[in-house]
Design a protein that fits this description.
The protein contains 5 helices and 7 strands. It is of the alpha+beta class and about 180 residues long. It has one domain. Strand 2, helix 3 and strand 3 form a beta-alpha-beta unit.
Length: about 180
């Protein structure tokens, strides 16, 4: 019996898309999210975390950490998060996560990817629907307090890099966000 060749996950996920195409698209989507989310009441900080802060050629997704206050308009932020995730999926067969933390550094969960909140069998949230649009799936995903306090790359309200920044992240994301901060909105 002839064995099939195992296809690496990134080849299966992205097929013939180049590393440049994958990373460029994810960075453009991240920039769009930041520009929209920073106007949302209750958003205090937005940071880039995960594999996009490295030189990984074909990251499986883009991860953003949003620090929020009690004034957060969660439905509005959730809509932006779903748009980010949907765009990554439709353009690249990729993903996106918007992680949430409070101003005290406590991890809250992720933006739920469902448009309407009601308990679902497949939902891994501890309290599905208790806080609309929040997937508090803390048993599945958790962020360290250190990552929340000092994320590798802050994107808003100012750009702060605590790691060596990949060239494409600098040119395709950070440079534009720095320019935005110099331009009155």
């Amino acid at each position: 019996m002839k064995r099939r060749r195992a296809i690496p996950a990134d080849e299966w996920q992205y097929r013939d898309r180049s590393s440049s195409e994958v990373r460029t698209t994810l960075l453009a989507l991240a920039a769009d999210f930041v520009r929209s989310a920073r106007t949302c009441p209750g958003v205090a900080r937005i940071a880039l975390v995960g594999s996009m802060v490295t030189c990984k050629p074909r990251p499986k997704d883009v991860d953003l950490l949003v620090t929020v206050t009690a004034a957060l308009e969660m439905p509005r932020l959730a809509k932006l998060g779903r748009r980010l995730k949907g765009s990554a999926q439709s353009r690249l067969n990729s993903g996106a996560d918007v992680f949430l933390a409070d101003a005290g550094g406590r991890y809250l969960g992720r933006v739920c990817h469902y448009r309407e909140c009601h308990p679902r069998v497949l939902c891994r949230a501890r309290h599905c629907g208790a806080i609309p649009h929040l997937a508090d799936d803390l048993d599945a995903v958790s962020l360290s307090p250190d990552l929340i306090a000092t994320p590798p790359i802050e994107l808003w309200p100012s750009v702060v890099a605590r790691v060596a920044v990949p060239v494409d992240v600098e040119h395709r994301l950070l440079a534009g966000l720095r320019q935005d901060s110099r331009t009155p909105e």
